[in-house]
Amino acid sequence: MTFTQEAMHFINGEFTPGTSGRTFDNISPVTGRKIGIVHEGLQPEVDAAVKAARAALHGEWGYLPMAHRAEMLHAVADEINRRFDDFLEAEILDTGKPKGLASHVDIPRGAANFKIFADLVKNVPTESFMLDTPDGFGAVNYGVRKPKGVIAVISPWNLPLLLMTWKVGPALASGNTVIVKPSEETPLTTTLLGEVMNTVGIPKGVFNVVHGFGPDSAGAYLTAHPDVDAITFTGETRTGEIIMQSAAKGLRQVSMECGGKNAGIVFADCDMDKAIEGTLRSAFANCGQVCLGTERVYVERPIFDEFVSRLKQGVEMMKLGPSEDPETSMGPLISQEHKSKVMSYYKLAVEEGATVVIGGGEPEMPDELKGGAWVEPTIFTGLSEDARCIKEEIFGPVCHIAPFDTEEEVIKLANDTKYGLATAIWTENLTKAHRVARQIDVGLAWVNSWFLRDLRTAFGGSKHSGIGREGGVHGLEFYSELTNVCVKL
Ligand code: NAD
Question: Ligand 1 centroid vs 1 CA: distance in angstroms?
Fold first, then answer.
């Protein structure tokens, strides 16, 4: 069997089914059919992976000069690119996302995450201070960055390779060892990365993978493991809360990248073509399953009707279909379970008084795709600001559009949420853009763009959207311990 048919754990440089004897099915979101099995890890598999990671920290990996470590991570990126088609196939099998999207975003960014952080560690300075002392000779202080240790990486299913390597890249660049627990929905690209690590010669135990679920399974056992030094998590806010409780024992540090209910703000002086194109992407890319996606769109009243009508036209042009079809602009949701959740919000929106501009139901698909998790891309208007569909993250291909009259009003509306991840502001008046961007309570504010990422910059959310920032030097701060050395002269 190939790794796509049977996903195994990767522990201490070896693929293993583990000893739990438990497996679960990997189901295609496109057809609903079984495409393989995944071995489920429990306490023994987690123990073995943590032990391997701890040993590797004190082995060859721990003594590698930084430049050599960075070279190895470049080699990992090169090997991902060399096996681009394998990664593409695995990612598409798991997620059903359009091939164009995975080949332009998920796989290249998955590889880039190793290069960018390998280069960064070599170039980021640490602080140093001269201190005056009464004897006049003084003292010099300087910081030394050291690996934090064994890092647990808990990743989600929406951008599986990209979001996992976004954490593994800086963790390894900083000299740590990792155990990844990928989402149970998307085990394949993480498994394949194990092969890459062996090909490149990354020492055994540096990169480990244990498959499984969250509660009473690999995720819970890993995050509760006392020999894990820090936990980096991307996923739902309520899962983050549970993981924080585990991390409290032993005062282990957490980095949390969680949910969002992001606002798009469209001013009447925007470039309408750009605002429509950007909002179509931000609301519907990856079938709306992007944490940074726009589920609330606020449009200045003079252009409200035109905006709604043009966004609707954009949605009418979208073609749902299988990944390989070059015409496909949208794939299915990740699973039947997630489809039920999204469909329940479509129903709720109508009960809460929404007007359905387009969509709101299940699309008619050809027979071979009928078992997939398909939903229609949907636009609502007319909801009141306290509706649950305005307050709760839906994580599907849906947005609600509401009019606003003043800058002050729209800032208040955008901030009236428990989340604080991202916003996209559309205006040709750059003074206004700067003024508004800094007043939105989010970690990421885009002006006249969306998801345009410079990996050297901070990434993360405020309020219920997360704790801490990763990206650039911020990632290195989480993944390393700083020792201040004070030398009396
Ligand atoms: P999820 O929280 O259900 O699962 C994420 C991971 O946590 C999975 O690997 C899962 O198995 C694991 N997990 C679940 N319960 C656990 C537990 N008790 N202990 C340990 N691990 C556990 O999230 P999801 O459905 O995979 O992803 C979608 C969510 O992720 C959305 O809310 C989205 O906004 C968020 N997200 C945030 C970002 C960001 O950068 N802020 C990026 C992508 C996705």
Answer: 29
Which residue's CA is minimally distant from atom 13 of ligand 1? 214
Our measurement of the distance from residue 279's CA atom to the centroid of its chain's CA atoms, rounded to an integer in Å, reads 19
The side-by-side arrangement of strands in the sheet containing 9-11 is 14-16, 9-11, 207-209, 177-181, 150-154, 230-234, 253-257, 466-467
Indicate the pTM of the whole model: 0.97
The model's pLDDT over 41-54, given as tens digits with 9 standing for 90+, comes to 999 999 999 999 99
What stretch of H or E contains 294?
A: strand 294-300
Asked, for residue 459, whether it belongs to a domain, the answer is no
Question: Which atom of ligand 1 is the closest one to the Cα of 222?
Answer: 20
* CA separation for the pair 240, 259 (Å, rounded): 10
The domain total for the chain is 2
Domain annotation covers residue 52: yes
Q: How far is the CA of 137 from the CAs of 113, 130, 403, 484, in angstroms?
A: 45, 10, 66, 19
Return the half-sphere exposure (C-beta side, CA atoms, 13 A cut-off) of residue 270: 30
CB 108 within 8 A of CB 122: no
Domain at 210, CATH number: 3.40.605.10
Which structural domain, as residue segments, surrounds residue 217? 2-258+465-488
Tell me how many degrees the CA angle 212-216-222 measures, rounded to the nearest 5: 65
Q: Is 257 a catalytic residue?
A: yes
ipTM confidence score? 0.97
pLDDT for 4 beyond 90 = no
